[in-house]
Amino acid sequence: MIRSTRRLxxxxxxxxxxxxxxxxxxxxxxxxxxxxxxxxxxxxxxxALALGYLLLPFDLVPDFLLALGLIDDLVxxxxxxxxxxxxxxxxxxxxxxxxxxxxxxxx
Length: 107
Fold this sequence. Notes:
Blueprint: H1 2-32, H2 41-55, H3 66-102
Domain DUF1232: 46-79
Membrane topology: Multi-pass membrane protein
Organism: Halomonas salifodinae
């Protein structure tokens, strides 16, 4: 029982981490639109760094080394997304409360 609960919490954390880039994009949109304050500068900067790491050709392990290059990208971007997860959690709570105030599901 404890082992399955632990596995479920790991899966929930992985799912939340996988959704982090989407939530980061929504965060940027709401910050730029002036709807979300205070501005989480650290989350915006680390997210931009992760995006730049994915898009720019400069990597720790070059992408032409197929599997190693892609794993390197996943590890670095995952680590950066994990660093901004607490701030994304606050944003998700704000978004949920804003939707509840408006009477809708999602803004």
